[in-house]
UniProtKB/TrEMBL annotation:
This is Putative polysaccharide export protein, PEP-CTERM sytem-associated. It is found in: Cell outer membrane. One of its GO terms (cellular component) is pore complex. Residues 1-24 form the signal peptide.
Length: 208
């Protein structure tokens, strides 16, 4: 086989593989109506990278700002290595009160989170042909359209209608087809849907 024949064979094989891939993606089921706009039972929990304001009422010298370290802990002026990751702000406030109780009489603490990162289980991750692939903290009432705005839309190489949503529901992981081209380029709002914490959106690349 000469070089020209070999190159032609390779192109045919790649074309067949691409066709098989697109067919497989197009066969993905759509998200069931019961999940499309259902609201999850959701409370924000603190994660590494979050910025917090910690107010200790009546003790201004203890009021401070803290960033949760990659190990999920943070340090205050009184206590080192307090665990924060996985707690709600209210739960963390009670934990700080308990820790401060050894040094301050009946401390009253409030925790305000103002720099949101969150734990991976409460992020929505976007990979593939997004303009800015990244993890986005989930927020209540978040939709697919909101997510695409947050990542700057798709690249020119995206095959939006071949994209996939990976969702874990009731302990089972399932893949669903998305119609991002219809939503973003044609303005078909019926392709929009509610998102859930932990969703993964894979934006496919166009092969042609």
């Amino acid at each position: 086989m000469n070089t020209g024949q070999f190159a032609g064979t390779v192109k045919v094989v790649l074309a067949l593989m691409a066709s098989a891939f697109l067919v497989a993606c197009s066969s993905k089921p759509t998200v069931p109506e019961g999940q499309r706009f259902s609201e999850p039972d959701y409370n924000y929990v603190i994660g590494p990278g979050d910025t917090m304001e910690i107010f200790v009422w009546g003790n201004e010298e203890l009021t401070t700002t803290a960033i949760v370290r990659p190990d999920g802990k943070f340090t205050t002026r009184l206590v080192e290595d307090l665990e924060a990751s996985g707690m709600t702000p209210t739960q963390l406030a009670r934990a700080i009160e308990e820790a401060y109780g050894e040094y301050v009489r009946q401390p009253v603490v409030s925790v305000i989170v103002n720099g949101f990162v969150g734990v991976p289980e409460q992020q929505i991750r976007v990979v593939g042909e997004a303009a800015e692939p990244r993890g986005v903290p989930f927020r209540q009432h978040m939709t697919l359209l909101d997510l695409m705005i947050a990542v700057g839309g798709m690249t020119e190489f995206a095959a939006g209608n071949k994209s996939v949503l990976v969702r874990t529901h009731n302990g089972q992981q399932t893949s669903y087809g998305l119609r991002l081209d219809d939503l973003l380029r044609d303005g078909d709002i019926s392709a929009n849907m509610a998102l859930m914490p932990g969703d993964i959106v894979i934006i496919s690349e166009s092969w042609f």
